[in-house]
């Protein structure tokens, strides 16, 4: 079964002159790490927001672990998905423990078991010493790591992350990638977006490259590289298909 299947997705924002998604179709198999890649403005965040039920598509189909993403299945899908948005979605004046307890409560978790889980993940993400520090005192990398914990407290089968390693240092990035691999090894499916093609090449079982609201190509990174003799890596493949023109 596919962890995610998207068919003919179309979206034009009310204020926009042009469509953001123009019949986007792709699927990622369950239990794998998928990468949704594309230049600035390609429509990655819009796609992820529709997948997670945060933005309404104009038309098209989205299936999450075999369930259609619609009002009738929203609550069921909410339990399956963990969402890590591009922007840090934590309360800056609250500590990590207070934030994570709040997010755990939203998923119906509470009491000692929630507290133990929060403390466990703070340790896994190297934040145990700052557990009671207010989030606004955290570094960028620490905020990103805490932001991920908020999305996994309910043990989602599908973790969706929008540029989780953007703007973090090498140590935080390495920690985050290591966590994603181990979370995937425990059986979860992962979908992430990134501009970092070297990272996507080493992390992802499969990538889908989109541009200007359309799918360009999808496959295993090494297979895509092997198909083009002049390409040495995923970045070469990406530039081959999306071109060198700068994007706004
Ligand atoms: N709420 C909105 N209202 C109007 N236009 C929007 C809105 N959100 C996104 N867009 C437009 O849709 C297009 C795609 O944006 P989106 O953020 O989905 O792309 P992206 O691939 O995630 O880009 P980036 O890599 O820069 O984050 C852009 O042209 C953007 O300006």
From TrEMBL:
Signal peptide: none
Pfam families: ABC_tran (PF00005)
Keywords: ATP-binding, Nodulation, Nucleotide-binding, Transport
CDD domains for the chain: ABC_subfamily_A (cd03263)
A single MF term (Gene Ontology): ATP hydrolysis activity
Domain ABC transporter: 4-237
InterPro entries: AAA+_ATPase, ABC_transporter-like_ATP-bd, ABC_transporter-like_CS, ABC_transporter_ATP-binding, P-loop_NTPase
PROSITE patterns the UniProt entry points to: ABC_TRANSPORTER_1, ABC_TRANSPORTER_2
PANTHER family: ABC TRANSPORTER ATP-BINDING PROTEIN, ABC TRANSPORTER ATP-BINDING PROTEIN NATA
Similarity comment text for this entry: Belongs to the ABC transporter superfamily.
Identification of the protein by name: ABC transporter ATP-binding protein
Protein species of origin: Chitinophaga varians
């Amino acid at each position: 079964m596919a962890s995610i299947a998207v068919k003919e997705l179309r979206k034009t924002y009310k204020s926009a002159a042009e469509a953001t998604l123009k019949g986007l179709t792709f699927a990622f198999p369950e239990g794998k790490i998928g990468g949704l890649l594309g230049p600035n403005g390609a429509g990655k965040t819009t796609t992820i927001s529709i997948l997670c039920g945060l933005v309404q598509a104009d038309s098209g189909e989205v299936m999450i672990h075999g369930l259609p993403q619609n009002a009738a299945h929203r609550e069921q899908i909410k339990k399956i998905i963990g969402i890590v948005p591009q922007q840090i979605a934590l309360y800056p004046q609250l500590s990590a423990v207070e934030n994570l307890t709040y997010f755990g409560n939203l998923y119906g978790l509470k009491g000692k078991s929630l507290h133990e889980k929060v403390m466990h993940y703070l340790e896994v993400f190297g934040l145990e010493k700052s557990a009671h520090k207010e989030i606004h005192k955290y570094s960028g990398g620490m905020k990103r790591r805490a932001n991920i914990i908020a999305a996994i407290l309910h043990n989602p089968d599908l973790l969706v992350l929008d540029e989780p390693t953007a703007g973090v240092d090498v140590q935080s990035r390495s920690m985050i990638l290591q966590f994603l691999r181990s979370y995937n090894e425990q059986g979860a499916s992962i979908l992430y977006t990134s501009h970092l093609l070297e990272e996507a090449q080493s992390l992802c079982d499969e990538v889908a490259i989109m541009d200007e609201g359309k799918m360009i190509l999808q496959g295993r990174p090494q297979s895509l590289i092997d198909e083009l003799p002049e390409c040495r890596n995923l970045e070469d493949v990406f530039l081959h298909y999306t071109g060198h023109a700068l994007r706004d």
